[in-house]
Design goal:
423 residues; alpha/beta; Spo0b-associated Gtp-binding Protein, Chain: A; GMP Synthetase, Chain A, domain 3; 6-stranded mixed sheet; 5-stranded mixed sheet; 20% helix; elongated
């Protein structure tokens, strides 16, 4: 099954906690703190796999998590870093942030990309020793890793895209000019997913041609296959617009041409402005000379280059391909989408965002900032408690409480900890 869009959640590993430990060895008095640091959390790495052609692997597995860092231990032993998780994607996969719909990275090259960074490990108590605090009984907790919900979109790396109504001969043309073997049959929507083929014009001249499943009028509202696969010509430098010049299905070629261009415009206005070469196909079975002349004159007036071909009979195909190669030589390289994603800071929350509520003589404080602060405090240690009190005072948390009317003896409740307030 061809899958070209998927949503996944990635979570980097949490950093290990720092250790509270003191050196204990015979004949060595007051050995001092020797708590090791926690290991760094594992990261989520994105790699391109040239052997992959769809996002099928992400159809059923939606959550990906890297390993957590190990806590530090005594004797200054640092915890082991968490194991990175490598996710493989096909070439040309664009990764977007689901929340903001901005591009994080375009995996069009072979470079790896760190999508989610693991959290730093916490410091052991050895870092907090000072001449006046020689036995710190607290350490820092490890930080959480990045967590993202992302959208994976496969946009094929093709130089040229074939567009047109269903059953106008796109797949036939692809099979004639390349070694691709798309399914070909005389009914609409034979092609259910894009097909790629490499077209060789000379020994050192080639380009990639993409057969995009046919779109019809109303595709923007979901008719036919809708716009499901038009993302695959977002990168194309040139479009070959195939029209059934024979009118074998009772449609007017001019109306067909305008309808498809209108659908391209609805999908992406820039796509409708992309350079086009018009291929009037099935010329071998066309019988209405007046209709052919009318179509040729119309296309010439619009300023497009037109080639009369029969993909089935291989008539005029060589001229079309040579003209395509010449046009590609003048056009810029395949589009690589620039990232516009602005990552959120890892340290979430601030003192100003704390939620303070009063219930009689009990004051509750909640918020991500204070929850993170509490993880770094050892409430069994006097010096650590004084540090906690000092941080709250410097952050003007007590001032907010006073402005709200807290009185001496009132209880302050912060998650699972309570203490009495005194000025």
């Amino acid at each position: 099954m061809f899958v070209d869009k998927a949503e996944i959640t990635v979570k980097a590993g949490k950093g290990g906690n720092g250790c509270v430990s003191f050196h204990r060895e015979k004949y060595i008095a007051a050995g001092g703190p020797d708590g090791g640091d926690g290991g760094r959390g594992g990261s989520i790495i994105i790699n391109v796999d040239t052997n992959m052609s769809t996002l099928m692997d992400f159809r059923y597995k939606r959550k990906y998590a890297a390993g957590n860092g190990i806590d530090g231990s005594g004797k200054n032993k640092k915890g082991k870093d968490g194991k990175d998780l490598v996710i493989r994607v096909p070439t040309g996969t664009v990764i977007r942030d689901k929340e903001s719909d901005t591009i994080i990275v375009d995996m069009s090259g072979i470079e790896s990309f760190k999508l989610a960074r693991g959290g730093n490990g916490g410091w052991g108590n050895k870092h907090f020793a000072t001449p006046t605090r020689q036995a710190p009984r607290f350490a820092k907790a490890g930080l959480n890793g990045d967590e993202l919900e992302v959208i994976l979109e496969l946009k094929l790396l093709a130089d040229v895209g074939l567009v047109g109504y269903p059953n106008v001969g796109k797949s036939t043309l692809l099979s004639v000019v390349s070694k691709a073997h798309p399914k070909i049959a005389d009914y609409h929507f034979t092609t259910l997913f894009p097909n790629l083929g490499v077209v060789y014009v000379g020994e050192e001249n080639s380009f990639v041609l993409a057969d995009i499943p046919g779109i019809i009028e109303g595709a923007s509202e979901g008719a036919g296959l809708g716009h499901e696969f038009l993302r695959h010509i977002d990168r194309c430098r040139l479009i070959i617009h195939i029209v059934d010049i024979s009118g074998s299905e009772g449609r007017d070629p001019i109306e067909d041409f305008n309808t498809i261009n209108e659908e391209l415009k609805r999908y992406n206005p820039k796509l409708a402005e992309r350079p086009q070469i018009v291929a009037a196909n099935k010329i071998d079975v066309a019988q209405d000379e007046e209709q052919i002349k009318k179509f040729v004159n119309y296309i010439n007036e619009k300023g497009y280059k037109l080639y009369k071909i029969s993909a089935a009979a291989n008539t005029g195909v060589k001229e079309l391909i040579n003209a395509t190669a010449v046009e590609l030589y003048r056009l810029p390289p395949i589009t690589v989408f620039e990232a516009d994603y602005i990552p959120k800071p890892q340290m979430k929350g601030s003192p100003e965002e704390l939620v303070i509520e009063n219930f009689d003589d009990v004051w509750t404080i909640e918020g991500e900032w204070i929850e993170r602060l509490m993880k770094n405090v050892n409430f069994d240690d006097y010096e650590s408690r004084m540090y906690f009190d000092r941080v709250l005072r410097n952050a003007e948390v007590y001032k907010r409480l006073e402005d709200m009317g807290i009185e001496d003896g009132d209880t302050i409740s912060i998650y699972n900890m309570e203490f009495d307030y005194t000025q």
